[in-house]
Structure formats: C-alpha cells, structure tokens
Amino acid sequence: MKKEIQAIPQPQYNTSTYAKVAEALAADYFSIYVVDPDTDEFIEYSAAEEYDELGVEKEGNDFFNLSRKNMSRIIDPEDKERFLEIFVKERIMNILERDGSFTTKHRLMFGEESVWVSMKATLLEDETGRHLIIGTNNIDAQMRREQEYQNRMSEARDRARNDFLANMSHDIRTPMNAIVGYTNIARENIHDPGMVQDALEKIGSSSHFLLSLINDVLDMSKIESGKMQLSMGDCDLAAVLRRIEDITSMQAANKALRVTYDHSNVRHFRVWGDELRIEQVLINIVSNAIKYTPEGRTVDLLAEELPSEQSGKSRYRFVIRDTGIGISEEYLPYIFDSFSREKNTTINRIQGTGLGLAITASVVEMMEGVISVKSKLGEGSEFTVELDLEVMDQEEEAEADAPKEQRDLTGKRVLMVEDLDINAEIAELVLSQFGMVSERAENGEICVRMIKEKGEGYYDAVLMDIQMPVMNGYEATRAIRALSGDYCREIPIIAMSANAYDEDVANCLAAGMNDHIAKPFQPERLRELLGKYIN
Predict the structure, then answer these.
(1) Averages of pLDDT over each 10 residues, the chain, 535 residues
(2) Which of 233, 244, 247, 533 could be stapled to 492 by a disulfide with Cβ–Cβ 3.0 to 4.6 Å?
(3) Residue 376: count of CB within 10 angstroms of its CB
C-alpha cells in the first residue's frame, strides 16, 4: 500500500517530546496516536493515505470510546468480538502499568479487502505526566506468509499422518490376518499335531510382531511427551547379546542370511545401565539390517570395549553392518525421524511403523550415547552405537554371574484380580504350569473382601490388574495395605496390567505394590517375580 505521512498540529497539552517520538516512528507505522490517559484527549500525528480513508477522527477528547465505535465499523467481523472484549480502557491500562506495553493483532476492512494490522500501545511518563503512544502497523504481508507456511506445515503433517496410518493399517492387518488364519487352520486340523504345532509357531511369531508395532507407537508417544525414563540397574551385556542372537538368528535363517555375532573384544560384561533399553536399541538395528538385506547376503554385529574418557567407565561400541539394499543419500538425513520410511521400503512391502530408528536414536540420546550411520544405496549400511557405561567391579561381576536358584512355587496360592475372563484363563493356565494354585477376584472390592475372609497367610501373593470396575487396582492395594496386621502390610502385590508406561509403574509402587509386569507377559518373567517375593 502506498503510504503518505501527514503532519498534524500538536495538541494544546504539552506533548512535544512525544510528538517527536511519534513523528520518528511514523515511517514504520500505519498510524500514530498520542493519548493523555487521564483525560482521554488524543491527536493523530501521522497516517497512511489508506488509513485516512477509513474516516477515523484525528483528534478529540474521548479516545477509547471513539476507538471502540470506529472499530465496530471498520474491523473484520470475525475479529470484532475479540477486539472489543480486549480494547477496554481499564483492562489496557492495567496491562500497561504492569508490562509497559500492550499489543494486539486484528484485521481492518478497506472496502472489500481485509488487511492484518498490529496495534501497539506504550505507556510513557515524565515530568509533564503520563502519555500513551499508540501505533498501528500494516503486517498483512507477514501474516499471509506465516499463514502460507502454516498451511504447508499442516499439509505436510496430514500427509505424514495419512502415510503413517496407511502403513500401520497394512502392517497391523498383516499379522492379524496370520493370527486369525492360522487359528482357523489349527482348529480345523486339531488331530494333526504337526499342523497344529506349525500353526501355533506362526501365530506366536505374528503376535510378537504385532506387539512390537504397538510398543513402537507407545514408546514414541512416551518420548514425545517426555515421559520415558531409564531404569538403571545391574545390566548383563552377555545376556543381552545372547538374547539378540537367539531372536535374530531365527529371523536370519528364514532368509538364508549369514549372520556373525562377535563380542570377543568385550572384557567386562557387567555394567550399570538400562538392560531393557540397551537390548531394544541393538535389536531394533539388527532386526532392521536383517529385514532390509536380501536373501543370501550378510549381517554382522560387532561389540567391543574401548577406553572411556569418563572415570570408572568403558566405552562400548556396537557396529551393525549389512550388505542389504542400503539407504539413499537423499533419505539418509531423515533416517532417525519419526514415522519415516524410505519409498523403496514401502514399494517392496517391507513392514514397520517407521518408528524403530527414531525410538532407537532417542533412547541412545537419553543414555548420553552416540548413534551414527553410513550407507550406500544397493551396497548396504553400517550403524554404530557408542555408550559410556559404568563397569561393575570383579566381586560384583562374579556375584552377578553366579547361577540363580529358581524357587519352587509348587502349592503356593495366588489371588488373581482380573475382570476379563480370557485374561484370567491365560494367567490361571500359566500359574498351574508353575504348580501354583490360583483363585480369582473380578474386581478390587471383591479382592479386599476375599483377603479379609480367608485370613492371614492364606494367599502367598496377589496379581493385581489396574483398570477394573467398582474398585481399581490402586484403590484395592491401598485398602489392603490399610488393613490391620503385618500380613496385609507385607503380602506381595504385583501389578499385572496393560498400563505399561513408566508413570504407571511409579503409580503402582506409590499405591503400595511391590512390582509390575506388563501384559502380555512372558511366563518366565512372571515366575521370576513370584519367586522373588514369595517367602
């Protein structure tokens, strides 16, 4: 818009200093007013030609009321209510006296055209009294650029979300189709043990993949909300590497890949760290390497221990190298972004959420480690993870390596608190495999009543669900702990729940539970916990 500055005679009250300030600012503002807040006397010092065409008073004695009247006429109808609510003298003066300035953005109507402006009021004071300098600036071009940027970002987010949902829909339906299909095959061939065994193995494999998809989404949600926490403790890297080999070697065998696992250069396997997260990081990368490597090629996992600059620690370097499809130079900078999958992986129908490497990078960062990648399209990739971990002393390492005695749980009685029949049936079957006796309470209220009725020593432990009708697991645990006697204060209560966030575990402990196991649970992990707490 063309802008012409008009000189206006100074008002009768002494504002010469502020007149000079206003005139100095006039080149950058649509209009400039100087207002006496005590009398509401005002005068305009400059205005663009277009602003003059709006027919707004240039001087007078009732600034705020006149401004509200004029703005009701010239403001964009969509901004009218908001502006009139804000532009009240008492409200603006309170803000000015507190902050020294007041700013608002709105749109003015110039004929049929709506133009964004920014109004700024500044309160100044000197020996002549208090004065408001109110400037209105044309910010239409800036606002339109910002809106265009926001539109592009919104479209990009929508595309990313839609791509993610499309991938997730495909990837969830694939294992679900296998689970449903092989369940029907097993049912129809119930008298063929070989067929049933094969179907069960494929159901188990598909279930594991489906669970990994869900865990990826939940982990990313925890990371983005800042709720993921490390669980530091005794970490056995030898056990981690063994489990990775057990899990991934079968995956590799199905593709006729040659996989090498080498940790001959590791001297200390016992460290202080988060064993679960370290395993998650490595298995994500190794599984990806196997997934993206064609049949007959190679994948290598190299673990080595190096000196660390940090006292009492060693630097553990894990290198995962493959001769797979590789990563394009264009995609490489985005490899650790959430929900990202390179185009050729979706074309080739390679499954996954696109979250694994984003989670991996975030977890490595939480552990103050470093992750890097080198790759060439068509030739393969090499991921390197480096972690500085505190090494346990030799006595601790020897003690940790000593074989753990597995407690005999035969005849021990567990009160299982579970409202869903199918969950209760699964848990009962698992407990019976340990030689244990189980009884069920359908909600927390029944659980508390059964403990009261059966009396001291009847139950050896309680497996407590969290989300239940009538009384949830937290409430039931607090009620049990509040009962009289050492038995109720000390009976092991283990949460067995699908509430698996770190804060869920913390809430269980705060309510008085001893430990937590997430659904779906591994039977051996449940046995380990029960053996730990049952005397």
Answers:
(1) 43 52 62 88 80 85 91 92 91 88 91 90 82 87 90 80 66 74 88 90 77 72 70 88 81 84 94 88 88 91 93 94 90 76 48 67 92 92 95 64 70 94 90 94 96 94 94 96 94 89 85 91 88 88
(2) 533
(3) 13
**CB hemisphere CA count around 144 (13 angstroms):** 8
Whole-angstrom Cα distance, residue 32 to residue 254? 76
Closest CA to 367 of 451, 291, 310, 437: 310
Looking at residue 27, what DSSP letter applies? G
Instruction: Tell me if residue 389 falls in helix, strand or coil.
Output: strand
Q: What is the CA radius of gyration of the chain?
A: 35
Say which amino acid occupies 155.
Answer: E
Collapse the DSSP code of 189 into the 3-class scheme (helix H, G, I; strand E, B; otherwise coil) and give the result.
coil
The domains of the chain, with CATH numbers, are: 16-138 (3.30.450.20), 152-224 (1.10.287.130), 233-401 (3.30.565.10), 413-533 (3.40.50.2300)
DSSP-assigned states of every residue in 450-514: HHHHH-TTS-SEEEE-SS-SSS-HHHHHHHHHTSSSHHHHHS-EEEEES--SHHHHHHHHHHT-S
Say whether 351 sits in a helix, a strand or coil.
coil
Decide: 136 and 30 in contact? Cβ < 8 Å: yes
Q: Where are the beta strands (DSSP E) in 237-297?
A: 258-265, 270-273
Measure Cα distances from 134 to 47, 129, 185 in Å: 12, 16, 79
Contact of 219 with 357, CB cutoff 8 Å = no
Phi-psi region of 440 (alpha: psi -120 to 50; beta: other; left: phi over 0): beta
pTM for the model stands at 0.52
Q: Which residue has the tokens 């200390």?
A: 268
The first and second tokens of residue 18, run together, are 């502020």
